[in-house]
Amino acid sequence: MDAAAKVTSKGQVTVPKAVRDALGIKEGDEVVFRVEGDRAVLARTPDFLDLAGTIRVPAAKRNVAWDEVIRRTRSDRASARR
Known about the structure:
By secondary structure, the chain is of the alpha+beta class. It has a domain at 49-81. It is built from 2 helices and 2 strands. It has helices at 17-23, 66-81; strands spanning 31-36, 39-44. A two-stranded antiparallel ribbon has the order 1-2. A hairpin with a 2-residue loop joins strand 1 and strand 2. The N and C termini lie far apart (49 Å). The model has no long low-confidence stretch (mean pLDDT 88).
């Protein structure tokens, strides 16, 4: 599908309704632009809360503080480089 839109003097673009419908974009949704060469790709950003519970976490790794997760990840990566 191709859809055209004009850029305003403020650099704003209205996403055409056909594109919003095709991507399921609603008012308040966030989108991301990715530049690939001389093109930009628009995508709806996922609601990460919708992913909650979709990945099994081993019992030993549950209820760990986020800063501890980051510390362990950095430590594991540093060890792997050696």
